[in-house]
Design goal:
The protein is mostly helical. It is built from five helices and two strands. A two-stranded antiparallel sheet has the order 1-2.
Length: 145
């Protein structure tokens, strides 16, 4: 842990080298996570900026790109403050257990309907499973396949 003077308000390490502040990568190499309050604070500070230089200084101080600011503004506009809440990282599940069960039942239903269609198929002379009697065979009692 670094002394308080070498940390920013989030506790991330900073070094002063020739009057310039540089951020060190956090110890575990993980992404930073901003709370809703931090995001609202940054958006409020961005609204108070009057020039491009002030905006650039704010983004440098926070370690953000302009696209992050645009994305957060859009989230706030579309969903309100709830849109700024942290989302779970990683790939989102596309189907839950209920969806998989419905899909399995639909496949089973289609298979049973196909079997029923085959069972109900009219079977005339020469149809599947029918014995076809020839005229001579009928007289003699013989069957022809």
């Amino acid at each position: 842990m670094l002394p308080i003077g070498l940390q920013n308000y989030r506790g991330q390490a900073q070094l002063s080298v020739t009057g310039r502040t540089e951020r060190l990568q956090n110890d575990r190499g993980q992404r930073r996570r901003f709370t809703r309050e931090e995001k609202l604070r940054i958006l409020a500070e961005a609204e108070r900026c009057t020039g491009r230089c002030q905006m650039a200084a704010l983004l440098r101080k926070e370690g953000l790109g302009s696209s992050h600011l645009s994305m957060r503004r859009q989230q706030l506009r579309d969903h309100g403050e709830a849109g700024l809440d942290a989302k779970a990282a990683g790939r989102k599940p596309t189907r839950d257990q209920r969806d998989r069960d419905v899909e399995q039942l639909e496949r089973k239903s289609a298979r049973l309907e196909h079997e029923l269609m085959i069972a109900r198929k009219p079977r005339g002379p020469g149809g599947w499973g029918e014995w076809q009697l020839s005229k001579e065979g009928a007289r003699l009692g013989a069957c022809v396949l």
